[in-house]
Amino acid sequence: MIDYGFTEEQLMIQELARQIAEERVRPVRAQLDEEGSHSAEIMQVLAESDLFAVFIPEEYGGLGGGALELCIATEELSKVCGGVAVSYAATALGAYPIMLGGSDEQKKKYLPAIASGEKLAAFGITEPNAGSDAGGVETTAEKDGDSYILNGSKIFITNGGVADIYTVIAMTDRSRGARGASCFILEKGMEGFEFGKEEDKMGIRASATRELIFTDCRVPAENLISREGMGFILSMRTFDHSRPGIGAQAVGIAQGALNEAVDYASERIQFGQPVSSFQAIRHLIADMATKVEAARTLVYQAARQVDSGAKNISKLSAMSKLFASEIAMEVTTNAVQIFGGYGYMREYPAEKFMRDAKITQIYEGTSQIQREVIGLEVIKEAKFRDKK
Amino acid sequence: MKIVVCIKQVPDTTEVRINPKTNTLIREGVESIINPFDLNALEEGLRIKEKMNGELIALSMGPPQAESALKEAIALGCDSGILLTDRAFAGADTWATSYTLSRGIRRIGEVDLIICGKQAIDGDTAQVGPSIAEMLDIPCITYVRKIEEIDKSNIKAQRMMEGGYHLLESSLPALITVVKEINEPRLPSLRGKMRARKEEIIKYSAADIVCEIDSIGQMGSPTVVEKIFAPPVRDKGTMIKGEPSEAAAKLVSELKEKGVLL
Amino acid sequence: MSIKVDLEKCTGCGFCVNYCPFDAISMRSRQEDSLPASRFRRYAKIEDSCNLCGACIDSCPLHAISMERAEKKERVPLKDYKDLWVFAEQREGKIEEVSYELLGKGRELADKRGCSLVAVLLGDDISSEAEKLIHAGADKVFFIEDPLLANFTDEPYTQALSWLIEEEKPEIILMGATTIGRAFASRVAAKIWTGLTADCTELDIDTERGLLLQTRPAFGGNIMATILTEHNRPQMATVRYKVFKPLKSDPSRKGEVIEKKYPGKLSSRTSILEIIKDTTQEINLSEADIIVAGGRGLGKPENFKLVEELAQALGGAVGASRAAVDADWIPYAHQVGQTGRTVAPKLYIALGISGAIQHQVGMRSAGTIIAINKDPHAPIFNIANYGIVGDVFEVVPALIRELKK
């Protein structure tokens, strides 16, 4: 056992999340994957176990943890099912804009229900013409008296339809580009707020991914987070906080696949001996394990940096997400390889990990975007270093 | 409404093996767990407590380490945990165990309902629940698969039977033993775990519960274990090979030959 | 009473540590515990969690561990107790098969002990069943009739039998380990303070000591234990269905049938409101001679039909593994295993069941076990008499065709 310097509370979170993953998620993961269905029952279990409270401040009904606690829980769930894990982590993503930029009233109104797990949250920025380019958002929010009228749509929204609370980016001033974006809190059931297409995905199929449609949707002005024009900055800060969580998801998926592969390699007999006794397999396992461990360390480091309140967290956050997701793809692919023909079959869990891993390289900023973030930061830092 | 749930910390029996050469137990890395049926008992207790605003106490007899099982019960939502622990309790069979637990319950005072799991997986006797009821002179409903109604003075419950069930009604105080089917036990919550860490487990010795020394532990146990040994090993079976229809034909003729099928 | 380690013999080898089922032995330093110096640095210490099971005694290669037992006295004058009783359990006036099985074994034991075999029947208007018990091997039948004894509730049954025990003083009582027998026997043993051994798989008489040797599985069937009740009477044991064989009913057998009258008034604080039969469970799993059980390998609830079809072709009952029950493919009543039912049919066919130890515990005493599973490494094959590695969906239809030939 490696000591990651966790506190007693963090160890409790890890133990509980692991127990839930093993006892409640593992028995149904294949079924959820096949049906492509979000499990309200599992979310209920996570809620009753207080796992949604770990990343919410105590004054708003949470347990006062932060990104590291979120990562610990997400990693454990991901070891069994990346889809369940993302339904959990996406609630944190949806809650971050409120935690980072919301007023005390907004926090009091929304965070306790998220902490108790009574309500799931979701974050909506992506549109058909605005993925990595947040400036391309076409959804508009027009001021009308003491409310805003939203029009447009969002796609690929994790927890879309199942969440009750949505933080949504819309343009209050299109002429200003990214600086004209603002962030609003929407509630399921608001007039003019509907759900569109449900996506049929390659992986993380135990999570809901859906289109959000706004048709003259009237949102009270008090639901504007921070002020007009802050949407883009708020989004970037949200991603800085949430990316280690995706890193943790990737580490969990990789570890889950590695565990399955190692068990299989020790049991599978070929040429009269377990395949794990062949150097080709053993060294492959060694490389996989080493890379997973490196990714995990980077993720925890990034999460700790986020929780320390440090200002410049973009680089490390992006690095943790980039590295962990690339490792996840590599490790899960190799896990399928170790399973051989069985690895390619739906009946064995290896291929699911591989399908689940792919998304971690894409959402919350593709690997290419992460490299942009990291590259820009490194070059910026170099200039600063030269001045010293 | 005061409810007591009796729980037992047991070794995860699926891990225990016997060495056929030396005839001794092999115990490697066997974890201690709360007896699975007792988790159902705890869950039912929690549901009644929540519904009727009652008090729920987890009670166990065992070595000091059994404290961790009671902490787990508190993490699940029990109000308090009591451990009956004393060197003098060691070596108890079901009679002495039931006696000790019944004295522990007397010490708690007026109790309306006692819930036990149907049996413990290390002994599989299913004797302790009904024995406690007898020793406390209260009615008992075993193998409860559903509580249909409960109020301050009565309980109506379904007792599972071979090939069906009986609907029984009993006055309270009473003892019930529950089967797995009755509910799905919840998992602990983080807040519960945090509370459990701080909560003191109450410990009673033989003197605290006023037990006569010849009624507890090995002294009070009518049964003794004469010997333990490995179960007879099954002969290695025959693997039948071939295409499905071929294998099926071979199997059926083999079974007919051996007289298993007529 | 305690386990003692002879410090002069103990070498601190640590063998016993692994054998202790309760994790109650630790290896400690003699120096740190201020013990006299020895050429062996460590010694075995028995901790408070010791349950006095004695497993360590046999494990010690140096015979350094022993158990000191306190002398126990006779709780009752043992010589006053004689005869072997079998509780004849009736449901709605019909005697349970297990009671006849116990009379079969009881006959053998009574002959060995040189005593009478007595059947005890509690019920209401049941005297007509008494003759059957004589035909099944009993020398004598005691019966008590009372409306409160018509169907089982634990209090009046306990009152009646405890009274009869005190009156007649039997040496041994055997009961079926049914849902009724387990609860009833426990309550009686608790009331009269005697030993009770559940689920015996073997019973014998130690003729020298005049004791009933009660052998049962412990620790989930991984070990067997022989248990005695030395100083209390009667010696009580329960036995599951199908463990022993009934004698062939012999209508020419003669015996005494004696009605006993309970002197007081029986009472119960529990009443039976309704008796509901589960029609989905046409054959009682515990009593079935043939069981076909399905597990996770069947994949879907629809596929469970295959299990039913094979069961039907064989005239057997349907069982299931925990995985299948947890997935809601079939009700819990069909679950075989540690948290379900324990069965001992003549033939057990496991379809797509991997055979985790928890499942094995519930069916390993079946006469013949057949496993069909596509995973050649499934543990079920370790205990199967016949195994077929293959696709259940191909093999089972072939099997059904073969059976219909």
Largest sheet: number of strands, sense, barrel closure of chain C: 7 strands, parallel
The average pLDDT score of chain C comes to 89
Task: Output the strand order for the largest sheet of chain C.
Answer: 11-15-10-5-8-9-16
Cα gyration radius of chain B (Å): 22 Å
- The backbone outline of chain B, from C-alpha atoms, is globular
Overall, the morphology of chain C is flat
Q: If you consult CATH, what is the topology of the largest domain in chain C?
A: Rossmann fold
Helix content of chain C: 25-40%
Q: How widely separated are the two ends of chain C?
A: 65 Å
CATH topology-level name of the largest domain in chain B: Rossmann fold
Q: Give the domain tally of chain B.
A: 2
- The count of strands of chain C amounts to 22
Largest interface: B-C, 101 and 115 residues
Give me some keywords for this one.
heterotrimer; B: 262 residues; alpha/beta; Rossmann fold; 2 domains; globular; C: 405 residues; Alpha-Beta Plaits; 3 domains; seven-stranded parallel sheet; 22 strands
Describe the structure.
The complex is a heterotrimer of chains A (388), B (262) and C (405). Chain A has 388 residues and is α+β, with helices and mostly antiparallel strands. Chain A has helices spanning 8-35, 40-48, 67-80, 82-101, 104-115, 231-267, 279-307, 314-339, 350-360, 367-387; strands spanning 121-124, 140-144, 147-158, 165-171, 181-187, 193-198, 209-220, 224-225, 269-270, 273-274. In chain A, a hairpin with a 2-residue loop joins strand 9 (269-270) and strand 10. Chain B is an alpha/beta fold and 262 residues long. In chain B, the strands form 3 sheets. Chain B has a 9-stranded mixed β-sheet with strand order 11-10-9-12-8-1-6-7-13, with helices on both faces. In chain B, strands 2-5 form a two-stranded antiparallel ribbon. In chain B, strands 3-4 form a two-stranded antiparallel sheet. Chain B is globular. Chain C has 405 residues and is α/β, with parallel strands linked by helices. Chain C folds into 3 domains: 2-68, 2-Layer Sandwich (Alpha-Beta Plaits), CATH 3.30.70; 78-259, Rossmann fold, CATH 3.40.50.620; 285-404, Rossmann fold (3-Layer(aba) Sandwich). In chain C, a hairpin with a 2-residue loop joins strand 6 (90-91) and strand 7. The model of chain C has no long low-confidence stretch (mean pLDDT 89). Chains in contact: A-B, A-C, B-C. Chains A and C meet through loops of A and loops of C.
